[in-house]
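Per reviewer request, we include the raw input and output of the structure prediction for the construct analysed in the revised manuscript.
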Amino acid sequence: MVKIENAKETKIAAKFIVDMDVGKNAFKLNWISFYPLLIFSVIVIEGSFYWRIKLRMVRRKTALSNFEIGRIYSKLRWVNVILLTSYLPIIIIALLEKKDLSGIIVGILLYFMAVIEQINYFHIRLSYETVNGRLLVIEPLKKLFTGTGKRSQLRKDIDTYLKG
């Protein structure tokens, strides 16, 4: 009998405290969480194409020059900024209309992941900082906020284009 009550209490807590439906619609992807997932995916796909181009350069196959890469990605950078900024009114409307809280939380987390990827690819390298085989998390964020981080390789290519 205790197990049934605990299961019932867990369901009630998930439903009413977090406003998460644990029935057949658990973690249902809705427009509030789908849009930042789409933005995140677009940024990651752009990054994978960038590194594919760079790999082709290393292998001495036909590839774009650093200048051409900078030209293309300087425009994509601003497309991403527009996509990221257009989510802010969506989340405000969702909060005002008291939409599903779990969808809002997932959407905000995905949005922050997209922002981090945008920064990582197009501005300052945030990843791959290790000490003794352990991945550092706080150090890259400190460098980001103090402005002492290393420019990402893609940012260097964009700067090459912008300098002409």
